[in-house]
Write a structure and sequence with these properties.
Low-confidence stretches: 407-413
Radius of gyration: 27 Å
CATH superfamily of the largest domain: Reverse transcriptase/Diguanylate cyclase domain
Largest sheet: 5 strands, mixed
Helix content: 40-55%
Strand order of the largest sheet: 1-5-4-3-2
Oligomer: single chain
Number of helices: 15
Structural class: alpha/beta
Mean pLDDT: 90
Number of domains: 3
CATH architecture of the largest domain: 2-Layer Sandwich
Length: 413
């Protein structure tokens, strides 16, 4: 894992640093220390910095300190360190402490007696050590994920020496961040680059935080536009927990990363180190399906693929749209002109595996009403629910329709 704000507080020689607010962000990774010399920091940071505010080169009143806290939160910095003493910043105002606590931004107080050279040297040394250790750990994990090793026994011994918790069965999660080209086409190059790097840092930080909450954390591996995470998954309950946690993370990040878009493919669980490469292959297949139907999917698990694996391999989307139109076009058109009931009826019937009583209960209608709707569906489509080939065509078309861009089912006019 990266050097965290909590690790900085524990470094030898830095005992006089005190956390004043923002304990929720103690796991924020620190990329490097940065001394703020200007009035604001928004234009000078990329995300992940531990910002030091001295007050020597610029007066720091309460309003300015509040500004720095808010800009730091906006730019996803690791934390803010305010140096206090008799000459420049005498104390940290209560409003600044409260704002940092509200935003979850770690706010540290450093006495002027603790020299900056000691602090920056301690952090710099720790960063170098952590980077060296992190690269070694990542190299071992990449070899396992790629199946690129001569002796599994030797590689696992290296993992043990590096304190990698590989005894826990894992599920492979493969993320992909898309939309960088669109960002550069709409923003000036320097602004687009700054925004992209900030988004990547935000993704890295929140992914690390989510992994730590799942326990037995392994640092995510960044490879260009992809991030690989190894989630602990001892059984199916852990897999379901992982899916819920990753779906929550995906929804949260996609709101924050716009116009970029994050997609996720999940492997099956219970992969041991010798099977990580197979797990990554499963996650790649699931990611392809997630990307092929981005409007409603965004996330796909390997065990959910089914026919999606085949549909995702069809690059010409017009073929899928034409298939849906041929099978379900009459129903979709009827729902657009009247009260939309036929497509919901079809979905309920398939969801309940053809059980009329359960489907009627699901729709909160009488069973006879459901029967009349099904007869109308057969008449409009020319298909019979008794014909297995017709049922297959309808089921596949319905699956494609579910994963297609949402459309109004009623006539807007």
């Amino acid at each position: 894992m990266s050097l965290r704000v909590a690790d900085v507080l524990a470094l030898p020689g830095l005992q006089s640093l005190q956390l004043r607010a923002g304990a929720a962000g103690l796991d924020n990774p620190v990329r490097w220390p940065y001394v703020a010399e200007n009035e604001g920091i928004a234009d000078w940071v990329m995300g992940g910095e531990l910002i030091f505010v001295t007050g020597i080169n610029h007066p720091r009143n309460e309003a300015n300190l509040l500004q720095l806290v808010r800009e730091g939160h906006q730019r996803v910095v690791a934390g803010l360190v305010i140096l206090t003493g008799e000459e420049f910043i005498q104390h940290i105002p209560r409003s600044v402490i409260n704002e940092a606590e509200h935003l979850g931004l770690p706010l540290l107080e450093q006495p002027y007696q603790l020299k900056m050279v000691i602090v920056t040297q301690a952090i710099g040394t720790a960063l170098v050590e952590e980077q060296v250790l992190g690269r070694s750990r990542q190299h071992v994990l990449e070899q396992l994920l790629e199946g690129d090793y001569r002796s599994l026994e030797v590689l696992l011994q290296r993992a043990k020496n590096l304190r990698l918790p590989l005894a826990v069965p894992r599920q492979v999660a493969l993320f992909k961040l898309e939309g960088g080209e669109r960002l550069f086409s709409t923003e000036p190059p320097d602004q687009a680059e700054r925004q992209l790097q900030s988004h990547r840092q935000q993704l890295q930080r929140q992914l690390e935080q989510s992994l730590s909450e799942l326990g037995d954390a392994l640092a995510p591996i960044c490879q260009g536009e992809h991030w690989i995470a190894l989630l602990p998954a001892r059984d199916s309950q852990h897999e379901q927990r992982n899916r819920r946690a990753m779906m929550k993370l995906l929804e949260q990040l996609n709101q924050q990363l716009a116009p970029l878009r994050l997609f996720l493919g999940l492997s099956d669980g219970d992969h041991r180190p010798e099977h990580y490469a197979h797990g990554l292959s499963e996650a790649r297949q699931a990611l392809v399906a997630a990307q092929s139907f981005p409007e409603r999917l965004g996330l796909c698990s390997f065990n959910e693929l089914g026919v999606l694996e085949l549909l995702g391999a069809i690059r010409d989307r017009t073929l899928l749209d034409r298939f849906v139109e041929n099978i379900l076009g009459a129903l979709i058109g009827d729902d657009s002109r009247h009260e939309p009931v036929l497509m919901p009826t079809l979905e309920a019937w398939f969801h309940e595996n053809g059980n009329l009583a359960l489907a009627a209960q699901r729709l909160a209608v009488h069973r006879n009403t459901l029967g009349h709707r099904l007869q109308r569906i057969e008449a409009l489509t020319g298909c019979s629910f008794d014909d297995p080939h017709d049922r297959l065509n309808i089921a596949v078309a319905l699956q494609i329709w579910r994963l297609s861009p949402p459309r109004s089912t009623r006539n807007s006019g």
